[in-house]
Amino acid sequence: MTALLSVKGVKTYYGNIVALKGVDVEVNEGEIVTLIGANGAGKSTLMMTICGAPRAREGSISFAGRDITGLPTHEIMRLKIAQSPEGRRIFGRMSVYENLQMGAAVAGNTHFQDDLERMFDLFPRLKERLHQRGGTLSGGEQQMLAIARALMTRPRLLLLDEPSLGLAPLVVKQIFDAIRDLNRSEGLTVFLVEQNAYHALRLAHRAYVLVNGLVTMSGTGKELLERPEVKAAYLEGGH
After folding, report:
1. In the prediction, which pLDDT does 40 show?
2. Mean pLDDT, rounded, of the chain
């Protein structure tokens, strides 16, 4: 398998505080890879570092064989990497349709209508809310919109940061099912950062555990689900 995304020895700082202490992660073409860890472990920092803000102070990040460590964020995004960030960050005053247009603008609007139909198949609720302002949607609908907007860019790699945060279990299931379908039907490569370890590990081909800015464990999703230390730290107390 070819590594589409390769993170090697990455250290990221906030001022003098070391947030990532030499992280190694690989995501192969066509895989769903998840990164789990407690709040404050550095998961979102890794996502943001891949996107160039903050910059990695040491180590390297490459995408499709190209070193992107020093590139500005807008150039990284042009390389067919899309991010659905933590907290959704949709355009609240714009309609669902306009939000999706913003995503499509990155890819050029040639396939806009086809891609719009694909998003409606994936998230039928968005079709019902097409002309509603983003800010008036429920949390689950906003999350669907954030993912759909990222997908409108036609990415090779989708970075998903905490897609289940604050959502009802039924909505979480819908979102994870949609990610699985995309991966199976289109071979979309997904790197997922998630606090909901149970759902994430069931979905992922491979997984990493991040503790205090360091990867402490890796394996298939199934392997990690069965590891006693993972169960104790992330899976006890129900799913």
Report:
1. 87
2. 91
For domain 1-80+156-239, the CATH class is alpha beta
CA angle 67, 44, 175 (to 5 degrees): 105
> What is the Cα–Cα distance from 191 to 181, expressed in whole angstroms?
15
CATH 3.40.50.300 domain position(s) in the chain? 1-80+156-239
Contact 24, 216 (CB under 8 A): no
Q: Write the burial class of residue 49 (CB in 10 Å: 0-12 exposed, 13-18 middle, 19+ buried).
A: buried
* CA gap 127, 111 in Å, rounded: 17
pLDDT, tens digit, 9 for 90 and up, residues 86-96? 766 788 889 99
Between CA 105 and CA 103 the distance in angstroms is: 5
The pLDDT value given to residue 87: 63
Sheet with strand 157-161: strands edge to edge: 81-84, 157-161, 189-194, 32-36, 206-211, 214-220
> What pLDDT score was predicted for residue 238?
43
Q: How far apart are CA 13 and CA 26, in angstroms?
A: 21
- Cβ atoms of 145 and 133 within 8 Å: the answer is no
Indicate the helix (H) or strand (E) that contains 10: strand 3-14
Closest CA to 188 of 228, 143, 158: 158
Question: SS3 for 90?
Answer: coil
